[in-house]
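name: query_chain
kind: protein
chains: 1
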Amino acid sequence: MGQTPRPRKSQSEEDKMSDSSYEFGKVLERLDGLEQQNRRLKRGGMIAAICVGMPILLALGVPRGRSVEAERFVVRDSRGKQRAVLGLETDGTVGLWLQNKDEQMRVALDLFPEGSSDLGLHDKEGNVRAWLKVLQDGSAQLSMNQGNGKPRFLITTGADGDSHLTIYNADMSKALWSAP
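structure:
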């Protein structure tokens, strides 16, 4: 015996089914849009909470009217290597010293007890290659040095305002050119 044939749906029933599946698709699209919007709002809220909360937490962590004091601050990289030092030497010199990844001095900024200061730029071997100095009397010097630290190019300005430019030979025994 055979199966009994299903009654055929009328055209209006099929239209209703396609309308309801169309509406269901629209509902799913709207639901996806709302979920995306909700994720964006959560992210935005998290960022806003961090932006507002961090300064508050930082302000609560530092006592007001107090300072951090030390004779030396050392900055180390993730491997524990010393990369920067801000400190006070035993002779009273205050300095900021920056070192490369192998802990070799590359930049030195010093203020000496008598009032003079200098900025030295070092090569990878630690030799001062460029040096800017301001002496206690107000005179200044800028030198470009060879590997042994001896100047090859020197500009000086005296406290009285007189300036000089000198270019030296390799062992600094003779001025090759000078003005004035």
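note: The mean pLDDT is 84.
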